[in-house]
Design goal:
Three copies of one chain form a homotrimer.
Chain A (H helix, E strand, L loop, with lengths): L1 E9 L6 E4 L1 H11 L3 E8 L4 E6 L3 H14 L19 H10 L2 E7 L2 E2 L6 E6 L6 E10 L9 H14 L2 H13 L1
Antiparallel strand pairs in A: 1-8, 2-7, 3-5, 3-8, 4-7, 5-6
Helix pairs in contact in A: 4-5
Chain lengths: 179, 179, 179
């Protein structure tokens, strides 16, 4: 099994903002050399999301307005108990539950296996500081019979031919063909 | 590592609708020959969801009413900026965020590992056209020591016995027992 | 590939409640001996969630109030069709969709790979009975060339040295170095 682990650093200079991380994830899949597998992409912070939807600015404005209706920003300690701790970001912890923490995407034949409009984004709900996104890739090359034994077979058969010893040949044959 | 990749085609003839894809996923898990692993099931379109909940028609009606309250269908460009692009499906992009893009389900002893009422559904929010669901299975048989070496051992030991050559036997022994 | 499967039993004695399952998941990751992989943690019941957010009581109170606003408890059959079946828990099926069924977390160098405040919780929406959470871990040690061949190499080379037979040596060499 192969794996690749990478943290991407984010620094959104507003309280809220949507950042495309699509190309970064695509490059890491290339780098991983995984042909068949899964990639997990998750916010490492609990006031941010990773989600897949349309790369269209109007929709992103709609999301922002909608999330503000569902869980309005309100730093006062009256609406949200969480803000009695001295924090002002209770709304961000709520918004992130709507948009989700993570996506899991298939890797097929070495590429992200996505539909035509699927695009991977980071959604910041409490920015103006450095935060991280985790990309974790696991998978492998498709298993082919004897795949990893072939170099040994070639080397062995050549060697045995040179030595002309029958026992070695039998042994090699078992190793290469059946093993 | 074993894997299986399959796209399921959907064509819901209403704007919205819930379709069971449970049996399809179950069959693909059988076909994959994976004993221990994960299956990812995700909508490949950004106006649809895959979710796990109750196979009960009343609940499905409740979801539809509830999602319509949370993000009403409104093709006009006034409520949703997204609909200024000429689209009318901004609500669908919102509803899908509530219901989610994907589920990841465990495979244990070759079967979907689910609780008693868990059932896998596709939720269409902008239908009347062909769309896809991706099923990606990764995993393997549980690893047992020497498991994949046994045929080679039997074949090799028989062969070496026939040749009665000690070097070959030593070699086979190393290969089968220790390797 | 290594895997570990475990069901955790929950029994929340109120209708709703949040329970930390963080330490349980952490221990199972240790037990699995997986160095690089993924852990899936999901509610096995459709009126409960597994989610990752802040370990802060005020926020948990906020979530409860918020979810009650988004999908109020109402056992009557008038608001929810689902409750015409004799059930009273339609609200729980809705709340769980907001908070999500599952989380997928990376395992890196044998540990949960989480951000500083990420904490794994079970959220019960229809308690006062025994329910389960599934923990499924898959992954492996990082692949190192020849790693699993080394004992065979040592054994084989020693043996061949004793026998002083060239064919055996050639064969071992192919097996250990190239194979």
């Amino acid at each position: 099994m192969k794996s690749l682990t990478r943290e991407l650093w984010m620094n959104v200079d507003a309280r809220r903002g949507i950042v495309s991380i699509h190309d970064d994830v695509e490059k890491l899949v290339d780098e991983s050399d995984v042909q068949e597998g899964l990639v997990l992409v998750n916010a490492m912070h609990i006031t941010a999301s990773v989600f897949i939807n349309d790369n269209e600015g109007g929709l992103h404005r709609d999301y922002d307005k909608w999330l503000e209706e569902l869980a309005p920003f309100d730093p006062s300690p009256s609406r949200y108990h969480h803000n009695r701790t001295g924090e002002d970001n209770a709304d961000a912890h709520h918004k992130r539950q709507i948009m989700g923490r993570e996506v899991v995407v298939a890797i097929t034949e070495g590429k992200l296996h996505l539909g035509p409009w699927e695009h991977i984004f980071y959604y910041e709900f409490d920015g103006r500081r450095k935060k991280r996104v985790l990309v974790k890739i696991i998978g492998d090359w498709p298993s082919e019979p004897f795949q990893d034994r072939r170099p040994a077979c070639v080397w062995g058969v050549l060697n045995v031919w040179k030595c002309r010893i029958r026992a070695g040949f039998c042994c090699m044959f078992a190793f290469c063909i059946v093993g």
